[in-house]
Amino acid sequence: MRTFLRLAAAVSIVALSLVTATAGAGAPPEEKARLLPPPAKDEQAAAAKTETAVFAGGCFWGVQGVYQHVKGVKSATSGYAGGEKKSAQYEHVGTGRTGHAEAVEITYDPRAISYGRLLQIFFSVVHDPTQLNRQGPDEGPQYRSAIFPNSAEQAELAKAYIEQLTQARVFRAAIATKIEPGATFYAAEPYHQDFLTLHPDHPYIVVNDLPKVEDLHRLFPDLFRGQPVLVGANR
Predict the structure, then answer these.
(1) Is the pLDDT at 227 greater than 50, yes or no?
(2) In this predicted structure, what is the pLDDT of residue 153?
(3) Which of 62, 86, 139, 206 has its CA 20 to 30 A from that of 80?
(4) Which among 95, 36, 75 is positioned nearest to 185, based on CA atoms?
């Protein structure tokens, strides 16, 4: 574990230095967090106490960390989606050849927060949906922007919201987010879970992910909770 953290820190610092060096030299503009309009179309009120959503928006450390601070979310688990079970391992997914994206499975109470509101947070705070196969310093299809719907209704709502945002021209570039139904979610290795909370001083977390949690608090104060719901608390 210590070896992994040292390696990850070194890679993060080098990657961030390269990003800084290339800024203004043809690098794509970064979209900043903003409060986007809520979906005009949302899920119907459900009697179920628990539903799940699966989103991919770059490194799963930050995606998980944001949703762990959202009221109504019961759990947020880092993992992989889009590929086969046999390749759902970090060292394989990192090659970019497995079909998997780093993703997060969100278990939520639909009586407290809707799928549409989770989508609103995804596009407003979690990542830049205009980046194709990359997020910040991370590049490759494993870091793509994707929604993995668990039902036809979720797929329809995601499509409608992307169309809504596109028509409103809220972004300077086209939305690159893909809707990929029929994928199975596989939980990532234990050392990836709760990474933002457990390692708040990690260089990658400080630069890339803690600002997202701050943006969540700033833009969605009614949905923000200070105490995150952690995977480790359920073990």
Answers:
(1) yes
(2) 95
(3) 206
(4) 75
- Out of 15-19, 42-46, 144-148, give the one with best mean pLDDT: 144-148
pLDDT at 155 over 90: yes
The answer to whether residue 59 is catalytic is: yes
User: What number is the average pLDDT over the span 30-52?
Assistant: 87
Domain formed by 49-220, architecture: 2-Layer Sandwich (3.30)
Please tell me the predicted confidence (pLDDT) of residue 234. 65
How many angstroms separate the CA atoms of 55 and 102, rounded? 9
Write phi, then psi, for 221 (nearest 5 degrees): -60, -30
Residue 26 DSSP label: T
Q: How many CA atoms lie within 13 A of 107 on its CB side?
A: 13
Say which residue, 10 or 165, is predicted with more confidence.
165
Per-position DSSP letters for 47-59, written without gaps between them: S-S-EEEEEEES-
The token pair that represents 163 in the structure block: 């169309």
Structure tokens at 189: 């290795």
String of DSSP letters for 73-91: EEEEEEEEESS-GGG-SHH
Burial 93-119 (b: 16+ CB within 10 A, else e): beebebbbbbbbbbebebeebbbbbbb
Nearest to 199 by CA among 33, 69, 56, 6: 6
- Domain parsing of the chain, residue ranges: 49-220
